[in-house]
Design a protein that fits this description.
The chain is 44% helix and 17% strand. The protein is an alpha/beta fold. The chain folds into 2 domains: 235 residues, Rossmann fold, CATH 3.40.50; 147 residues, 3-Layer(aba) Sandwich (Rossmann fold), CATH 3.40.50. Strands 7-6-8-9-10-14-15 form a 7-stranded mixed β-sheet, with helices on both faces. The relative contact order is 0.14. The structure holds (3S)-3-methyl-2-oxopentanoic acid (1QQ).
Length: 414
């Protein structure tokens, strides 16, 4: 077994071990059986908790993102309930593992909608999964808040879909501009992307157009790969031979991390911009010391100065012993906006007197009403299509310790 292979296997063992822990936690918060399709949560005298579905990847390589999402969601659940729940009624998360593919997301969504009778779903992890699973929720009139689906066209899947994850065109260009600021002599650029992933395909379109049309740089080569690939010898060799000053990668964490590592191992010395798939500290376990220097645009900063972010960041650091990542911040925000919109619905007309169907519909229209939310992402709202309206974006650069064991995203002053 090659060094590279055994490393990938180790990574997968690490992911599935923590997935087991997460699965054990999730069975402790099993679905609320007391809610029937016609009886609203909290409608009976017992005041049952209001179930919110969390359908993200707790297993597979996509759990490199999903782990942070589960952690962020759980902090939000506690924070909402510590602050009075939904005007006195607590919320309760129902976790369903989507794993990393479309079928996993479809099954998780169906279970959350039909068995757990959730009022709304935060999920799935990937745009590739959202295009398959969101139409099911939309048809069932269950609001979805996408925590990490950044491909073009997500809110347009249907009227019940909205996202707290700003789209690729709002975020990705910032990293290119930061790289150009770091090295104004950049002339030649190469791009690589995962051709079996909807987000990666969408993001590379934005990257390529900014490189050529806006920055007027030469796009020397476009390399493609699969999110399941582990051997990037061909792509890394082609990128090296292209003699570029900048390589721009759109993929997910395990694949992109391996591409970065193999490219650096071959001797590439230029700059690297990574897209949203490289936006997790879990990437550092893949490319280790070779992750150093990657530029990644961010839709969240742990330094955002508002009381909600402060409460979130402090709780997350106490719980996880690390700074919250963008995916954690966005998933916290997903739960938060659902809870705050539910409070508004309940104020107008008590949830306990409404059917589940009515709650879902009213919740969805409240989310899309232009209501403003002060969140870890700053003050946000949704337009009437469900697209997030967000004003603050950032760029960070990966800084690894020399031994490659620990690293962090260092935020740059734009
Ligand atoms: C998408 C993404 C991924 C990087 C989320 C993990 O942005 O699939 O839309």
């Amino acid at each position: 077994m090659s060094k590279q292979r055994s490393f990938v296997v180790n990574l997968m063992v690490a992911v599935s071990a923590s997935a087991l822990i997460l699965a054990a936690c999730s069975s402790a918060t099993t679905p609320n059986a007391a809610v029937s399709p016609t009886t609203a949560p909290g409608a009976d005298a017992k005041g049952d908790a209001i179930p919110i579905g969390i359908g993200v990847a707790q297993t597979s390589n996509v759990a490199l993102f999903g782990q942070d999402q589960v952690a962020g969601a759980k902090i939000a659940e506690k924070w909402i309930n510590d602050n009075g729940g939904i005007n006195g009624t607590p919320i309760k998360l129902v976790l369903q593992d989507t794993a990393g593919d479309e079928n996993g997301a479809i099954n998780a969504f169906q279970s959350l909608i039909n068995q757990s009778k959730v009022v709304a779903i935060v999920g799935p992890t990937l745009s590739q999964q959202a295009f398959a699973a969101d139409p099911i929720a939309d048809k069932a009139k269950v609001p979805v808040v996408a925590p990490s689906n950044t491909a073009k066209g997500i809110p347009q899947i249907g009227p019940y879909i909205q996202r707290v994850s700003a789209p690729v065109n709002a975020v990705a260009p910032n990293a290119l501009k930061a790289a150009l600021k770091a090295n104004p002599d950049i002339k030649k650029v190469a791009v690589a992307y995962a051709q079996n992933d909807a987000f990666s395909k969408s993001e590379t379109v934005v990257f390529q157009s900014v490189v050529t049309s806006e920055l007027k740089l030469e796009l020397v080569t476009v390399q493609t790969f699969q999110t399941t690939d582990t051997d990037f010898t061909t792509q890394a060799t082609n990128l090296l031979n292209a003699k570029v000053d900048l390589v721009v990668i759109s993929g997910l964490a395990a694949d992109s991390g391996n591409l970065v590592k193999q490219l650096r191992d071959l001797g590439y010395k230029g700059l690297i911009v990574g897209g949203n798939g490289l936006n997790t500290p879990n990437l550092f376990t893949v490319c280790k010391a070779q992750c150093d220097g990657i530029f990644v645009a961010q839709a969240y900063s742990a330094d955002t100065d508002n009381p909600v972010n402060k409460a979130f960041r402090d709780a997350y650091m106490a719980d996880q012993k690390k700074t919250p990542s963008q995916f954690a911040g966005q998933t916290f925000t997903g739960v938060q906006v659902i809870a705050e919109a539910l409070r508004a619905v309940d104020k107008k007309s008590k949830l306990s007197g409404m059917t589940l169907e009515q709650i879902r519909t009213e919740l969805n229209s409240t989310l899309k009403s232009g209501m403003k939310f002060t969140t870890p992402l700053g003050v946000i709202s949704f337009d009437n299509q469900g697209e997030i309206l967000q004003t603050q974006f950032y760029v960070a650069q990966v800084k690894m310790d020399a031994d490659g064991k620990a690293g962090k995203f260092v935020f740059l002053n734009n």
